[in-house]
Amino acid sequence: MVLVDQEPWESTDAVRLREAQRAELDARYGNDNHEPGEEPSAASIPVFLVARDADGTAVGCGGLRPLTPDSAEIKRMYVVPAARGTGVAVAILRALEHQAREMGVRTLLLETGTAQPDAMRFYEREGYHRIDNFGPYRGAPLSICYARDLP
User: Fold this and answer.
1) Of 27, 91, 120, 140, which residue is least crowded by CB atoms under 10 Å?
2) For 40, how many CA atoms within 13 A lie in the half-sphere containing its CB?
3) Are 144 and 113 in contact (CB under 8 A)?
4) Sign for the pseudo-dihedral over CA of 131, 140, 70, 104
């Protein structure tokens, strides 16, 4: 069982999960310069979700950055390694999609990277399709972008 709920950007668990994600990406890419564009913040990510397991331990997160009135970008999607393959990522993604629909969003976009084949497989399996890199990711050689129209 996993419970996904909105939490403040600066909550202790939200910060810890984002730091863990950053450390993993730094290790995968061999540096800390692997995300073009504006760094996410509480001001740009009005929806930030944290997933907790049955014991209440924070095991994953994800946020939404509005882009236009009918589109948003998924940011900081992350699941701790010990919880991968247990359905946590799907629960977070579905909760983000639900929140997006509540905001009037019709299209979700996201960026992942060339050193994250597991993320690419996950998003493709969940109905996202490759698109040309958008916004700050245009021309970024490590970026791979996806989109999904919400039903």
Assistant:
1) 27
2) 25
3) yes
4) positive
Tell me the CA distances in angstroms from 88 to 18, 27, 51, one per residue in order: 16, 23, 7
pTM: 0.95
Yes or no: say if 49 and 62 are a contact pair by the CB < 8 Å rule: yes
Q: Identify whether the C-beta of residue 86 lies closer than 8 Å to the C-beta of residue 51.
A: no
Residue 147 structure tokens = 């989109």
CA distances to 1, 69, 72, 80, 139 from 51, in Å: 10, 26, 20, 10, 33
- The residues, any chain, with a CB within 8 Å of residue 128's CB and separated by 6 or more, are 108, 110, 146, 147, 148
Averaged over successive runs of 10 residues, the pLDDT of the chain (151 residues) comes to 96 97 90 77 97 97 97 98 97 98 98 94 98 95 96 87
Closest CA to 50 of 79, 23, 21: 79
Whether the Cβ atoms of residue 45 and residue 81 lie closer than 8 Å to each other: no
Can you read off the two tokens belonging to residue 129? 């399709």
Residue 136: which of 109, 117, 114, 116 has the closest Cα?
Answer: 109
pLDDT at site 34: 59
